[in-house]
Amino acid sequence: MEANLEGKEQELEQLRMDCEHLKARLASAQADSVRERKEKLALRQRLSEAKQQLLQQAEYCTEMGAAACTLLWGASSSEDAVKAILGGDKALKFFSITGQTMESFVKSLDGDVKELDCDENQFVFALAGIVTNVAAIACGREFLVTYGRVLLDTILQLLGDLKPGQCTKLKVYGGGVGKAGGGSPGTHVESRGPGLPRGPGHGSVRVRSRQAHWLTRRVPSCACGGGGGVATRSLAGAVRLMLMSLYNVSINLKGLKYISESPGFIPLLWWLLSDPDAEVCLHVLRLVQSLVLEPEVSSRSAPELRGSLPLQRILAMAKSRNPHLQAVARELLEDLRAPERDL
């Protein structure tokens, strides 16, 4: 009995020791838990502060980008300024970032019409306006066709991603929208007539005078309605600017060939032509004119143009109450009927 009792006491002592050890471990674990909770709270606070700083930095960068690019957009209405921009060592990087920024902007919309930050709007519109103005002069078009093909591809892709007609209207101030060749304040006229060298086999072809469009006034800022024009947050402005830049590029023969050979380009034009926005349709018609007026391109595009031409839509535009749209639609119909054309 004594031996058994002694064994039990030893077991009890061992249990007491184990219990004390476990208590010590528990106290240590609890202390660690308290310390870790404090560390987590501190990390969460730091993360929250970092997120806030990142948001502030993003807002600052957007504001700075919007302001700088709006100023650059205004400056780019000067041919000398465009040449200076292209002559700098950051031109390639700038147009690469331009494409990435425009793509990010459109992707963030996810196909939905929603309120957009005014600075973000202004930033993207200014970038598109700069591209349009760069493409308004011969050396700018050559630069974009030679070094900016990724940007041109991005613009074509984004036009397909945007949903025409689902956005409210935005005034985009630029060159005239009347008949080509008329000229208007801020519009750089780039004539392509029979007397200008345009490549082999072009001398005897009737060519309509064409304009490259400058955008000399920016889209009004956040005040929306101030500054002499109506402005609402929308995608229509982005569509118009991208179409204007493509039209300017199309004045360059290599540029026209490149964009016309882009997969799905002609179906994209017909799709955009269904947009209820008159200015979007106007710029689409001008792009179609570029295809039709260039024999080297129209001969290759003729089967697809002939097979899918939305003639009734164009005929309806030729009777539009919008005088600019009506004039360009009638010009296009005249060009399509010309006996020299393979259409």
UniProtKB/TrEMBL annotation:
Entry-linked PANTHER family: HEAT SHOCK FACTOR 2-BINDING PROTEIN
Tree of life domain: Eukaryota
Coiled-coil residues: 5-57
Key words, A-Z: Coiled coil, Stress response
Stretch list, region Disordered: 181-203
Gene Ontology CC entries for this record: cytosol
Name by which UniProt lists this protein: Heat shock factor 2-binding protein
UniProt xrefs under InterPro entries: ARM-type_fold, HSF2BP
